[in-house]
Amino acid sequence: MSPRAESGSPVNHLEEDGSAHLTVFKTSLFFSGDGFAVFDPAGHLVFRVDSYGGPDTHDKDELVLMDAVGHAVLTVRRKRPSLHQRWEGYLGERHDDSKPIFSVKRSSIIGHSGLTVEMYNNPGEEYHIDGSFHQRSCTVYEVNVDHSNHRSNHDEKVVVAEIKRKVDPDAHVLLGKDVFMLCVKQGFDPAFAMALVLVLDQISGNGDGLFDYLASAEVHPADEDYEEHEKS
After folding, report:
1. Whole-angstrom Cα distance, residue 136 to residue 180?
2. For residues 7 and 73, is the Cβ–Cβ distance under 8 A?
3. Rounded CA gap, 109 and 191, in Å?
4. φ and ψ of 169, to 5 deg
5. How many whole angstroms separate alpha carbon 32 and alpha carbon 164?
């Protein structure tokens, strides 16, 4: 499930159930540029995106997810032309001879749709992303693919990651959308999940309405923050 063994995710601080609850900051809050900083519950930096395009800032179609010390973990690159807004993911830093290990694309070019994630090394492994990234409320599902007709069985899907609004534990209020939670279930690669966040952020920022169709949906804060809020 997901390229965990290959990417070597540096997340060590896990919950009792083996899940990882990460806090994601858009670094444009504090610095010039447009990147991300991702922290574990202990406050340790685990991932970062210094600026879109890495050192080649002119290339806005390629994003490099790095660990805390700046080593490339995964690279996502927009595939052009593509009616489905397809992105492809590469292990580590991408080179001219690198082969993609996964792709992310719109499930449909017509109307409102989620995203479909396909793993090139395992055709039977597929994920779907539904929700509103604009509202920081998305769910990543692993779906069962029927090899006989290559169709996805939406009745057999398992939640593997969620994007949620974050609640300030002291003030008990929702924080701004530039700070949110990435909750990753046991067995799913946190680096892979964060690479999906990068693609969601880029597609959502294109102004085509994708993932904004649930803008009126109920926003679900992170479970542990919600429970804390209920106790207050």
Report:
1. 7
2. yes
3. 27
4. -70, -20
5. 25
25: amino acid identity, one letter:
F
How many alpha carbons lie under 13 Å from residue 29 in its C-beta half-sphere?
Answer: 12
Give residue 53's identity as a one-letter amino acid code: G
Q: With 0-12 CB in 10 A as exposed, 13-18 as middle and 19+ as buried, what is 178? A: middle
Count helices and strands in the chain by DSSP H and E runs: 3, 12
What are the tokens at 109? Answer: 């070019």
**What DSSP element (H or E) covers 152?**
strand 151-165
- The HSE-up count of residue 181 (CA atoms within 13 Å, CB side) is 26
Where does the chain have alpha helices with state H?
Answer: 4-7, 190-204, 223-231
pLDDT tens digits, the chain, 232 residues: what are they? 455 545 555 666 677 778 999 999 988 655 555 689 999 999 999 999 986 544 444 456 899 999 999 999 999 999 887 666 899 999 999 999 999 999 999 876 655 668 999 999 888 889 999 999 999 999 999 997 665 555 655 557 899 999 999 988 887 788 889 999 999 999 999 999 999 999 999 888 754 444 443 333 344 555 455 444 444 4
Which residue type sits at 152?
S
Instruction: Name the H helices within 61-210.
Output: 190-204
Q: How many residues does the chain have?
A: 232
Distance CA 28, CA 33 (A): 6
Phi, psi of 197 (to 5 degrees): -60, -40
DSSP letters of 4-63?
Answer: HHHHT-------TTS-EEEEEEEGGGTSSS--EEEE-TTS-EEEEE-STTTT-TT-TTEE
